[in-house]
Amino acid sequence: MLIFSSKRLYQFIIIPQPMQEKKYISQFFCRCLVSITLAAGALLCACDRRSARLDLLACDDSIRDYVSIEPHSVAVYASREDRASGRIECRIYDDEYEIFSRMFACMNEKEIAAAYLAKGSGRFTDSLKERVASCNNGNHRPNTRPNKGRILEGLRIAVDPGHSASNMDEAKRESKYMLIVAPDGRRFSFFEAALNLATARLLKKLLEDDGATVMLTRNENRQVYPIPYEAWRRRYFRRAVMEKVREGHITAAQGRILLRTGDDRRRLKFFNSEYEMPYRAEAINAFHPHLTIMVHYDASWPPHAPIQKYARLLEVLSKSHSSRDEHMAEIQEVLDSIPLTDRNTSTVFVPGCFLRGEVQTVEDRIALLRLIITSDLDRSIQFAAEVMKAFRSKLDVPAENAHMPASKEVGRCRTGVYARNLRMTRLVWGTLCLGEPLHQNHLAEAERLAVIEKGLIPERVVQVARAYHEAVRAYVRRYGVRESNPPK
Fold first, then answer.
1. Cβ of 459: how many Cβ atoms within 10 Å?
2. All residues at 6 or more sequence positions from 47 whose CB lies less than 8 Å from its CB, including other chains
């Protein structure tokens, strides 16, 4: 890299005296052009987009042991030992970036993994290049001249309503529920899966009215994976744990804990992470959306939560009860209740922050490589910023600005947008965001959201759906859209 001091650069481009002769003018402009070119080149080297992406993707320095960003390629290693010995698992050259990017629009996960492993340090085969070149992505391109009022004509959008509980008992097992006791004794009870689904259905209607083709990963309050969790747990749980240990998705120690534990919440979390989420992601990727929206709502555990619970427990214990069962029911309510928070912010997440041990499988390393080479991460950040802007304007709730574990802020100008270690955001290809507006356990929000338990659609849910819709329109106007997984 060339480095100029400000004084030296000024001397290089300073206007010569006198300027009467044409050759001096010519020399001056040539020098300016050379200086600008060199400065721009140095700036581009310093701001290599691949390295900037890796900074958001590597939450632990060990992740960098598996990837090498070179001037004209990116190399991936299966282990630290392989890197030390120079044994490359796959190298993508800069003139192959577009081919690699388009593979995600033409091939499924198994085909991509096979091509990745077969490539090694060599070049993509002619047959693969021909297949990618002949892949018809016309169905995945929006209308360039949409009808007036239907600016999303031809756009494909996937909407994933997070979680899957159909009742409060299932929501408690997912740990995604609200059971709130207000200071005046009022009680509010609802669960996030229902809010997410209601939002997704409203959003689907808004987007379709604008001309988009919309896919919902679920249209009911139930899981998406075809085998019900209870049946899966009885018939396949032990075999599934051993299989995931063998494939490197979980460690042997994690497998032993799962097999020995009686904690059904831990087993359900394993099921959701290793079966439910990948199944949803596979359906989304097969749809080849231009945009994917993962719908969630936020909640936070306040620092004074133990004090809240302790005070309520003392109150219950001091009361007289008509029966022991009534007494125990009130104690259980205290234990199950969610403490109120004074915070009420919104957050939007994009892929990022791989943690130690999270690139042990070929699929994980391909996900890391895709996010380094393609513009998926860049465009997801742009889209997430539009979503956050719409949240602020439609909901009148500020953006989150606190530090979060396993997260990185994407930039000072995009407050509230974080690259976070969320599995679903890495499994899905293309431009996406995972939104978490509002805090469900903020008293004012809980009052408004709890009407969903009466079969009503909360006005806040309507506002959130409209915010997403406005963000999609703004993103399309500002940035346009491209085929799934556009190249750098």
1. 11
2. none
Position 60 in a domain: yes
For residue 115, give the nearest of 360, 429, 107 by alpha carbon: 107
The number of residues in the chain equals 488
Q: What are phi and psi of 232, to 5 degrees?
A: -60, -45
- In a domain? residue 488: no
The domain containing residue 13 runs over which residues? 6-46
Q: HEC string of the chain?
A: CCCCCHHHHHHHHCCCCCCCCHHHHHHHHHHHHHHHHHHHHHHHHHCCHHHHHHHHHECCHHHHHHEEEECCEEEECCCHHHHHHCCCCEEEEHHHHHHHHHHHHHCCHHHHHHHHHHHECCCCCHHHHHHHHHCCCHHHCCCCCCCCCCCCCCCEEEEEECCCCCCHHHHHHHCCEEEEECCCCCEEEEEHHHHHHHHHHHHHHHHHHCCCEEEECCCCCCCCCCCCHHHHHHHHHHHHHHHHHHHCCCCHHHHHHHHHCCCHHHHHHHHHHHHHHHHHHHHHHHHCCCEEEEECCECCCCCCHHHHHHHHHHHHHHCCCCCHHHHHHHHHHHHHCCCCCCCCCEEEEEECCECCCCCCCHHHHHHHHHHHHCCHHHHHHHHHHHHHHHHHHHHCCCECCCCCCCEEECCCCCCCEEEECCHHHHHCCCEEEEEECCECCCHHHHHHHHHHHHCCCCHHHHHHHHHHHHHHHHHHHHHCCCCCCCCC
CATH no. for residue 332? 3.40.630.40
Query: In this structure, are 331 and 383 located in the same domain?
Result: yes
Residue 96 sits in the same domain as residue 198: no
CB 354 within 8 A of CB 368: yes
pLDDT at 485 over 70: no
Nearest-angstrom CA–CA distance, 348 and 418: 6
Q: How confident is the model at residue 483 (pLDDT cuts 50, 70, 90)?
A: low
pLDDT attached to residue 125: 95
Nearest of 208, 212, 216, 204 to residue 161 by alpha carbon: 216
Instruction: Work out how many domains the chain is built from and give that number.
Output: 3
Give domain status of residue 374, yes or no. Answer: yes
Q: Are strands 156-161 and 213-216 parallel, antiparallel or unpaired?
A: parallel
Q: Is the pLDDT assigned to residue 302 strictly greater than 60?
A: yes
Does this model's pTM top 0.90? My answer is: no
Mean pLDDT (whole number) for 124-145: 74
pLDDT digits 0-9 by tens, 331-367: 888 888 899 999 999 999 999 999 999 999 999 999 9
